[in-house]
Amino acid sequence: MDTALADPWAAWVGGRERRTLHLPDYRRAAVLVGLTLEPNPRVLLTVRSAELPTHKGQISFPGGSLEAGEDVVAGAQREAEEEVGLDAAQVQVLGTLDDVFTPVGFHVTPVLARLPAEPTLTLSGEVAQILLPSLADLRALPVLRESRRLPDGTLVPLYRYPWQGHDIWGMTARVLHDLLTHGPQL
């Protein structure tokens, strides 16, 4: 059976034109945007440990810098395994989303994937907590919007999702916003 026909998320990611970035001075990174396989999908997020040197306590997708010669899919899967113990055998990669950048110099490619309804996950030293909010719950939130001007003058929208005492913002919120506003409305 064709995955795109069976899964509206696969059809969506496969049927859109992906926006790429060319940022040669930025470090390449990838994140795994894992959606559980159920009628009301949940998205895999982490709360970063307070012990980390950067991004302490922030909400993020599992991910990080690519290793030499590594592609974005392999990097996202490796990082998800390191951070939350997600075995690659549990991951069905659907495709890649629009590239995003961070103000601290990362060029990130989000990898959209399906996970089992109850994925087997374990915390690592990098992760203080695993979050699995449903897309329906996130869509129901009041989205806080603001904008910031880049050094080249481009105005960039910023989003914040306040969910159950957590503040989802930055690159994670930009990727979530794309999913919630342009992805299948199930």
From TrEMBL:
Protein name: NUDIX domain-containing protein
Alphabetized CDD domains for the sequence: NUDIX_CoAse_Nudt7
Record Pfam families: NUDIX
This protein's UniProt keywords: Hydrolase, Magnesium, Manganese, Metal-binding
UniProt key word Zinc: no
Source organism superkingdom: Bacteria
Residue ranges occupied by any Nudix hydrolase domain in the UniProt entry: 26-155
GO molecular function: coenzyme A diphosphatase activity; metal ion binding
